[in-house]
Every structure is written in structure tokens, then in C-alpha cells.
Amino acid sequence: MSILLIGGSPAATSSTGRLLDHVGEKLALHGHRYSKLQVRDLPPQALLHADTSDLAIKRALAAVAAADAVVIATPVYKASFTGILKAFLDLLPQDGLAGKLVLPLATGGSQSHMLALDYALRPVLHALDARHVLTSVYATSQQLVWVEGSGLALDQAISWRVQAGVEALAAGLNALSGRIGDSYVVQAEPVRLAS
Ligand SMILES: Cc1cc2nc3c(=O)[nH]c(=O)nc-3n(C[C@H](O)[C@H](O)[C@H](O)COP(=O)(O)O)c2cc1C
């Protein structure tokens, strides 16, 4: 079973990206392989022009199509998910998430927009025919502290929510594969966008 992590932050140094990496590491501990796609690494012109003939866009869409589960992470921008993430999701076919499990993650500046994932992103994921959208995980910047040398420190409440999300995803994948208890080769590699 394969998992694709999709990062929707335009920022190169990103709290959302760190949270996504943390989830990837947890999934690896469960023995699941994953690959990672940062939307900001796609060619901007092709992304904005919806140029699905572009090689990097083609590869990104193929990576989504090949995944059994997708973890989608976004910062909250202006009370919603980011524009670059929407530009990418708009390139997927109407049933682009059919049969897939989806775990949504978001980071925000405060608790004010903690429902953004549920009122803004979740309907889009369902419109793309996601099989099952798991309970989303929302963390504020204050709950995610980057410690130089030792990495991401999570507030206890977020740590539990992340753990619950990862376990739900792992259980869903095991149920999908019908091979509960199997172990998989762990592989964390970026999706190759350009030749
Ligand atoms: C353009 C912009 C808009 C933002 N809008 C909101 C918002 O509406 N609500 C909120 O809680 N945080 C908002 N924030 C704060 C970010 O969601 C927060 O800092 C987040 O952790 C940034 O993630 P990143 O480091 O991955 O970019 C905004 C930040 C930026 C740069």
C-alpha cells in the first residue's frame, strides 16, 4: 500500500511541512512506505495554466493516482486552505481521490480557523470522490515548536491527535490491503517532478 504526502504550503521553511514530515516518520514506524509531493515545487506557470501536458504536472498527477492513501497538509491562509493547493486539486480528474483514504492536516496562526479544514477542504475532498476522509488534525504555530538540533516538538494534545490520525490511516490501509500484520519496506522519497 502506498501513501502520498502532499504539502500545500508555499513557504520553503514551513510549519506545515514539518508537521507533514512528522506524520511521515510516524507512518514509517508503522512500516508504511510513503512518497512526498510539495505543490510549491511544481512549475508555477504550468500549475496556474492547468497545463496537464507538463511533465512535472503529469508525474504529480500520476503519483496521486497511484496512492492508496493521501495525507494533505496546508496552512490556513485567509480562513481557508492555500491557493496553490486548490490549483493542484483542480487538476485532478473528478474522481481523482476515488478509493483513497485521506488524512487532512492544517496549521494556523490561532484556533480561530480550526474548522477551515472541515468547512473548506473536506467538501473538495468528497467532491473528488475520496473513499474515506479521516478526522482532520489542526495545530497552531504555538503548538509546533522547532528545536534546532532535535527537530519538531509537539504540544501533548497535538501529539495525541497526530498519533490517532496515523493509527486510523494505518488501520484503514491494513483493512484495504486485507493483509493485517504485514510489514512493508519503508521508503521516503520525493516524487520526481522533472527529468
Ligand atoms: C497570507 C497568510 C494568511 C494567513 N491567514 C491566516 C488565517 O486566516 N487564519 C489563521 O489562523 N492563520 C493564518 N495565517 C497564519 C498561518 O496559517 C500559520 O502561520 C501557519 O502555521 C503557516 O504555515 P507555513 O509555515 O507552513 O506557511 C496566515 C499566514 C499567511 C502568510
Could you characterize the architecture of this molecule?
With 195 residues, this protein is an alpha/beta fold. Helix 5 links the parallel strand 4 and strand 5. The chain has one domain (2-190): Flavodoxin domain (Rossmann fold). The radius of gyration is 16 Å and the shape is globular. The chain is 37% helix and 23% strand. It has helices at 15-29, 44-48, 55-66, 83-89, 116-127, 156-177; strands spanning 2-7, 33-38, 69-75, 101-108, 132-133, 137-140, 144-147, 151-154, 188-190. The strands form 2 sheets. Strands 1, 2, 3, 4, 5, 6 and 9 form a 7-stranded parallel sheet that branches. Strands 7-8 form a two-stranded antiparallel ribbon. The protein contains 6 helices and 9 strands, in the order βαβααβαβαββββαβ. Flavin mononucleotide binds at residues 9, 11, 14-17, 75-79, 107-110, 112-113, 141.
Give the proportion of residues in helices.
Answer: 25-40%
* H/E element sequence: EHEHHEHEHEEEEHE
Bound molecules: flavin mononucleotide
What CATH calls the topology is Rossmann fold
So, CATH architecture? 3-Layer(aba) Sandwich
CATH superfamily: Flavodoxin domain
CATH class call: Alpha Beta
Main pleated sheet: 7 strands, parallel
> Nearest-angstrom radius of gyration?
16 Å
Strand content: 15-25%
Shape: globular
Euclidean distance between termini CA atoms? 26 Å
Counting helices, strands and paired strands, the structural category is: alpha/beta
Unreliably modeled segments: 180-187
Separate helix tally: 6
Count of β-strands = 9
The number of distinct structural domains comes to 1
Average pLDDT:
92
